[in-house]
Specification:
The C terminus is likely disordered. By secondary structure, this protein is mainly α.
């Protein structure tokens, strides 16, 4: 291995150590309570060394969020994609949303940062970097629309409102499980499955969904181009991923 390759490997290892330490601290102590100095102490580096990798604490979070979103949307391996394509439209939607709950179980620290901690920065500040997260949202909305086209859901269903209803139930159960608000004799996985089944059954029955758009914060299918950045941040709140 040449000098350049060794340096790149060592730098990647340090970057990984910074991210792992930051993730653990952010989840254990809350994002707003963790400083660069505290992260540096955890890995026995100087704060100056941390800054040579990440300009700010926010940039560390953005790097973690980037990883988390790819893990969530992830499982983009060919086998999973082939399996999804083989499913009927409504079963595909069910699998996509169940993946959200699975993510909370497989990667609880990322889930906590992305969906629970209210103090983390908004990814709307990183428009280009998180374009794929918005594309994930649009893909999910398109899959729900495909269910309508296939006759699996009534034509009166609003795909965007349906997306929020489906994700809200699963995120809620995941948060309850992570915060230990589920009784010891209850099965969180079955509660999550029930929430998903009940929501889908409601959509199939033709239940009328209330519009989720607001006058102050209009929703559109394209990029975030709201005039007021504060409104845009409010629209993003639960941090960040457009799929919830």
């Amino acid at each position: 291995m040449g000098i350049k390759e060794r340096q790149e490997r060592d730098r990647a290892a340090v970057r990984r150590a910074i991210l792992d330490a930051a993730r653990d601290l952010f989840v254990a102590e809350g994002y707003q309570n963790v400083s660069i100095r505290k992260i540096a102490e955890r890995i026995e580096y100087s704060p100056a060394a941390i800054y040579s990798y990440f300009p700010s604490k926010d940039d560390i979070f953005f790097a973690l969020a980037d990883e988390g979103f790819h893990l969530l949307g992830g499982a983009q391996e060919p086998e999973r994609q082939a399996h999804l394509r083989s499913l009927a439209p409504l079963d595909r939607v069910r699998a996509i949303f169940w993946r959200l709950y699975e993510f909370s179980r497989q990667h609880p620290q990322y889930f906590a940062l992305m969906f629970v901690d209210r103090s983390v920065p908004r990814i709307s500040r990183e428009y280009e970097r998180f374009r794929f997260a918005r594309e994930m949202k649009q893909h999910i909305i398109a899959e729900i629309a495909a269910c309508i086209d296939a006759g699996d859901l009534p034509s009166t269903v609003d795909p965007r409102a349906a997306m929020r209803a489906l994700s809200a139930g699963l995120v809620g159960v995941a948060v309850m499980r992570l915060s230990e608000r589920i009784a010891a004799d209850e099965d969180a996985d079955k509660i999550a499955a029930n929430a998903l089944d009940v929501t889908i059954a409601g959509l199939k029955s033709g239940v009328t969904l209330q519009s989720i758009a607001t006058a102050k914060c209009p929703l559109d299918d394209g990029a975030e181009h709201l005039e007021n950045p504060e409104n845009r941040d409010n629209r993003r709140h639960l941090t960040n991923v457009e799929t919830r």
